[in-house]
Design a protein that fits this description.
The complex is a heterodimer of chains A (about 120) and B (about 110).
Chain A (H helix, E strand, L loop, with lengths): L3 E4 L2 E4 L5 E7 L5 E8 L3 E10 L2 E4 L7 E2 L9 E3 L8 E8 L11 E2 L3 E5 L1
Parallel strand pairs in A: 2-11
Antiparallel strand pairs in A: 1-3, 3-8, 4-5, 4-9, 5-6, 7-8, 9-10, 9-11
Chain B lengths: L1 E5 L3 E5 L4 E3 L1 E5 L4 E7 L5 E7 L5 E3 L5 E5 L4 E6 L8 E8 L8 E2 L3 E6 L1
Parallel strand pairs in B: 2-12
Antiparallel strand pairs in B: 1-4, 3-9, 5-6, 5-10, 7-8, 8-9, 10-11, 10-12
The chains are: A mainly beta (about 120), B mainly beta (about 110).
Chain lengths: ~120, ~110
């Protein structure tokens, strides 16, 4: 089954303790992206990747890191989480961002992160 | 730059009555437009997409949307609401290319009254 898999689904952590949220897709998609969803703000892009070893900042990158060493994986890293990073996070992928006009995006099921 | 405005944060309809969720967009170029649905505690699911083909787009679960360039609108409709339609709906515009790839509206919460 074609899908984007995020882990974990739920995570409660303490301020300053490094964590990684994994994202993996099995569709050979070039483009991957991370979003955070907050009430009243909709989804905002954190980072995106056009292909392996190519990443760039989205709208709200502060406090986050990403890497794209392999095509299928795009982990989101919080080096020192803070309470304002408490949010619902989504990973998404698409066949190609430059040719995406005829392709939709596939989203993961989300990771609910709470930082206390 | 591109932007999306969902005109209603909440819409409440009775089961069996029509649904209208409004979306206006702003874009310098010909955009692609999507509607996504998010059920409680679930991920985002693509309902339908417009990519410069037919202006009336049919999606899953009986939903459809009409692209009106003159009004810069992409409203989502369904003739008869079902209880299972209760969810959050997002209108999304895409030009392609990097950080502007996807711009989400803030969402419309659809409530279905029995």
């Amino acid at each position: 089954e074609a899908q984007v898999t995020q882990n974990p689904r739920y995570l409660i952590t303490v301020t300053g303790k490094k964590l990684t949220v994994t994202c993996s897709q099995n569709m050979n998609h070039e483009y991957m992206s991370w979003y955070r969803q907050d009430p009243g703000l909709g989804l905002r892009q954190i980072y995106y990747s056009m292909n392996v070893e190519v990443t760039d900042k989205g709208d709200v990158p502060e406090g986050y890191k990403v890497s794209r060493k392999e095509k299928r994986n795009f982990p989101l890293i919080l080096e020192s989480p803070s309470p304002n990073q408490t949010s619902l996070y989504f990973c998404a992928s698409s066949f190609s961002q430059t040719l995406n006009l005829n392709y939709g995006y596939t989203f993961g099921s989300g990771t609910r992160l709470t930082v206390v | 730059a591109q932007s999306v405005t969902q005109l209603d944060s909440h819409v409440s309809v009775s089961e069996g009555t029509p649904v209208l969720l409004r979306c206006n967009y702003s874009s310098s170029y010909s955009p692609s437009l999507f509607w996504y649905v998010q059920h409680p505690n679930k991920g985002l699911q693509l309902l339908l997409k417009y990519t410069s083909a037919a202006t009336l787009v049919k999606g899953i679960n009986g939903f459809e949307a009409e692209f009106k360039k003159s009004e810069t609108s992409f409203h989502l409709t369904k003739p008869s609401a079902h209880m299972s339609d209760a969810a959050e709906y997002f209108c999304v515009v895409s030009l392609g290319g990097g950080a502007d790839g996807l711009t989400f509206g803030k969402g419309t919460h659809l409530i279905i009254q029995p």
